[in-house]
Amino acid sequence: MENHKLNEKQKKAVGYEGKHLLVLAGAGTGKTRCIVGRAAYLIEQGIAPEKIQILTFTKRSASEIVERVKASLTNNQAQSLNGSTFHSWCNQLIVRYPNLFGAAGYTVIDPDDQLSVMKMVCGDQIIEYKGIRIKPQQLIDIYSYGRNTRQNLSNAIREKVYKGKTDAETTDEIDIIRSRVEVLLKAYQTKKGEGRYIDYDDLLLVVANRLRNDAEARDILSHQLKHLLIDEFQDTNPLQWYLLEPFLEIAKFYCVGDDAQSIYSFRGADYKNVHLFKQRVPESEILILDKNYRSTQEILDVSNWLIAQSPLDYDKELQASRGSGMTPKLVNVASQWEEANFIAENILENFTENNKQFADHLILSKSTYYTKPLQAVFIQKKIPYVTYGGRKFMEAAHIKDVISALRVVNNHFDEIGWMRFLTFWDGIGEIKAGKYISQLVAFEDPLGCAQNLADVIGGQEGETIADIYNTIYRNAGNVKQALQETYSKMEQALAFKYRKDWEEKRKSDFPVLEMLGDNYASIGQMISEGILENAKQLNGNPVLEGSQISDSEIKDHVVISTVHSAKGLEADVCYVLNVSPKVYPSAWNLDSEEKVEEDRRVLYVALTRAKNELYITRDTNSINTVNKTKNAGFSSKYFLEELPNQLTEQLINPYSLIKPRDISKPNSIDLSFGMDFS
Ligand SMILES: Nc1ncnc2c1ncn2[C@@H]1O[C@H](COP(=O)(O)OP(=O)(O)OP(=O)(O)O)[C@@H](O)[C@H]1O
């Protein structure tokens, strides 16, 4: 089992006997291995797996850790081990204890729905002042930032609208618009209450507030939970800490983190939180790991150099236990097309000639958007790939259409659900739908809706809608059946609405949705949990990627990921895309030292994913702009501007290097050839 491959310090961490521990360690030093080892160790010590909760930042890393624990133990010992994100954990608690948390009958709304609620609240009101315009999405950002960072409204406005500026003029402007923002945010809160909606941040707050204020709640949970294992601790934000704090007396904390990999400040994370651990957590210790097992020294040299350029003191110098390897390549490209072709050819060469698999390759980009040309080239050259960091399955429009029908049966006060479901049908616009909704939410319960729906709407549409509603109502305890019947009744209309890409893209998602439904005991559970899930793994089969069902046999694929979704990942060969001026650091961030330093950490996370080969690409055209990005107060220069030559090997025009050799002078051709004119 994994435990056997631990070094002395890792063993000490895994078998820690004290109360709370923070394992503070650099990239690739075995933090994930320590979490896996810890969970396995606790189970072997006789702790019931359901009393251990693993918390991570992505669903993917949660399931990966749980799978690894299971694989390291025999006899299905870890069958009921639970790993989840903060949101999904809180949601599970709320679903398990509906009375305790007082949220029975509430519907969880995702960011799209949150925006719909905010739009309903704003109507045609727009906050405008001196060239500043605050739209509904920005109001949500302000609200969420304030709650996640636990800062007051003025500070949240300052950060989200005025990019953190603190001058007197800005402060005056904030004072003026503040009260108007407050009115709309309060109206949003009221609307949530009326529709019985819980937004993502509410999930954490509902649990946190209950536990902080209610000794009975703490007592109940203390029988259910003994150990909290928290990954990426450096990225916990003040709201998450507010949630975790009451658990300090309930469970033992085992946290792992790296201050140099903190990349979520936009969600309020503060890399310094790891430094405050001992102060905040009584009866705690910190253990440091310093030996990197992932990368060769040359890769670490570039990463160490990058982080040493920072004015912040991370006190990190990673040493490779694996020793020396290949020098990283700095690949200068003239266009995204050239970059994409270089990478594709490189991967194909590795696959056909160097005995590597597609899965040995990881491509990292700041944004998914930037990788579109690359994806096009991969499709053209038939390189299998998956993307991490894109839109989630349950957020796709055609899925939301069908789910909206389930939502309104589950909670008939759900106006967003009604609006989507009713306007799905030809002939019902928003105005008509609005009228119907006001009648429908007046019924006391879903049964009332079921009985009267056909009359409220009338006509053929009324019949169809009522038929679907009743079908779901009857099958509320058999989600798969409910989905199958709903889909068959909506299929024709769906195929028409999405006729552009129905056959190629969307249709195949429905069998998957039905399979997904099979995992839930009721439609209520599916709606509240399913909305939070990525649905990438179903019954152990990788089924969904974007809008396709991938063949479960094909497991070998290149991973294209945003850096933010790549935490914890590693690969033999890594390509870090577009490490160009104005991107690292971003031209948008030059006025803030904190943001520049966060960009540096993003690049650090990306570089430290590589085990053996690292390719850093950059756009040659933008290199000329390097010297224009100087700023008075602090250094915001292009991160690679002073990269010592010996740390990388430069490749110029790399794609032309691997194109077939042609002769320098063109030959003439004969076009009067091949046709027999006789
Ligand atoms: N004691 C060890 N002996 C051999 N290999 C190890 C040991 N500890 C960790 N590794 C290997 O080193 C690599 C990095 O480990 P792991 O992913 O746990 O690090 P990490 O600290 O979580 O990294 P990061 O924070 O960069 O994601 C993995 O391939 C892991 O298998």
UniProtKB/TrEMBL annotation:
<keyword id="KW-0347">Helicase</keyword>
<dbReference type="Pfam" id="PF00580">
    <property type="entry name" value="UvrD-helicase"/>
</dbReference>
<dbReference type="InterPro" id="IPR014016">
    <property type="entry name" value="UvrD-like_ATP-bd"/>
</dbReference>
<keyword id="KW-0547">Nucleotide-binding</keyword>
<dbReference type="GO" id="GO:0043138">
    <property type="term" value="F:3'-5' DNA helicase activity"/>
</dbReference>
<protein>
    <recommendedName>
        <fullName>DNA 3'-5' helicase</fullName>
        <ecNumber>5.6.2.4</ecNumber>
    </recommendedName>
</protein>
<dbReference type="Pfam" id="PF13361">
    <property type="entry name" value="UvrD_C"/>
</dbReference>
<dbReference type="InterPro" id="IPR027417">
    <property type="entry name" value="P-loop_NTPase"/>
</dbReference>
<feature type="domain" description="UvrD-like helicase ATP-binding">
    <location>
        <begin position="4"/>
        <end position="296"/>
    </location>
</feature>
<dbReference type="GO" id="GO:0000725">
    <property type="term" value="P:recombinational repair"/>
</dbReference>
<feature type="binding site">
    <location>
        <begin position="25"/>
        <end position="32"/>
    </location>
    <ligand>
        <name>ATP</name>
    </ligand>
</feature>
<keyword id="KW-0413">Isomerase</keyword>
<dbReference type="GO" id="GO:0005524">
    <property type="term" value="F:ATP binding"/>
</dbReference>
<comment type="similarity">
    <text>Belongs to the helicase family. UvrD subfamily.</text>
</comment>
<feature type="domain" description="UvrD-like helicase C-terminal">
    <location>
        <begin position="297"/>
        <end position="568"/>
    </location>
</feature>
<keyword id="KW-0067">ATP-binding</keyword>
<keyword id="KW-0378">Hydrolase</keyword>
<dbReference type="InterPro" id="IPR013986">
    <property type="entry name" value="DExx_box_DNA_helicase_dom_sf"/>
</dbReference>
<dbReference type="InterPro" id="IPR000212">
    <property type="entry name" value="DNA_helicase_UvrD/REP"/>
</dbReference>
<dbReference type="GO" id="GO:0016887">
    <property type="term" value="F:ATP hydrolysis activity"/>
</dbReference>
<dbReference type="GO" id="GO:0005829">
    <property type="term" value="C:cytosol"/>
</dbReference>
<dbReference type="GO" id="GO:0003677">
    <property type="term" value="F:DNA binding"/>
</dbReference>
<dbReference type="InterPro" id="IPR014017">
    <property type="entry name" value="DNA_helicase_UvrD-like_C"/>
</dbReference>
